[in-house]
Write a structure and sequence with these properties.
Layout (H helix, E strand, L loop, with lengths): L3 E4 L5 E4 L6 E7 L2 E6 L5 E5 L4 E3 L4 E2 L6 E2 H11 L12 H11 L10 H16 L3 E4 L2 H15 L32
Antiparallel strand pairs: 1-9, 2-3, 2-6, 3-4, 4-5, 7-8
């Protein structure tokens, strides 16, 4: 049975044009975004004039259709058995051949070597920070959830019957009287 690939929500991870690395969106501000670097955890503002791309919106040109970055990262993860890419990132022909092994349906004419390098760098970074993992098959996952739920629920003890409370007495209470007006 093949492992299922799990990703953190890629819509909250962004790439900022002109800045290396990936960033996690912390919050939106009046003038842009407050982001946190995935590599070192430093926070800083990214202004609305900067070009920002969410990883969930990025795709690679394919021969037929575009291929979502999430699918590309899953293909790399599967091909490398969950290990980091340790190929030569400076040799363009080695990068292209490695990418062709992982994703044979990509369009060689429209995907630049710099894009391939960036994908492998992002893959290694996301893998290093445990944002890409192999999940267990669904049956095992459901079984674990049931076991955890059973461990967390307290044992139910039978409730002891309680004596019913005595009814309140109406003695000593004043009865409401109706006063009639007589016509005079």
């Amino acid at each position: 049975m093949q492992p299922i690939f799990a990703f953190m929500d890629l819509s909250s991870i962004i790439s900022v044009s002109g800045m290396s690395g990936l960033y996690k969106v912390v919050t939106q501000t009046r003038s842009g975004l407050l982001v946190e670097s995935i590599t070192d955890g430093k926070r800083f503002p990214v202004y609305s004039t900067s070009r920002v791309s969410a990883l969930s919106d990025i795709s690679i040109y394919g021969k037929q259709d575009d291929i979502a970055l999430k699918d590309v990262l899953a293909a790399i993860f599967k091909k490398l058995d969950g290990k980091p890419f340790d190929g030569n990132l400076t040799d363009s022909s080695a990068l292209k051949s490695a990418f062709a092994e992982v994703l044979p349906a990509y369009d060689e004419a429209r995907v630049y070597t710099s894009d391939i390098k960036k994908v492998f760098l992002w893959y290694n970074l996301l893998l290093e920070k445990n944002l890409i993992t192999a999940d267990e098959p669904e049956e095992k996952k459901e079984e674990k959830i049931k076991q955890e739920a059973a461990a967390k629920t307290p044992k139910i003890q039978k409730a002891k019957p309680q004596a019913s409370a005595p009814k309140a007495s109406t003695k000593g209470m004043a009865k409401t009287q109706t006063v009639r007006k007589t016509g005079a």
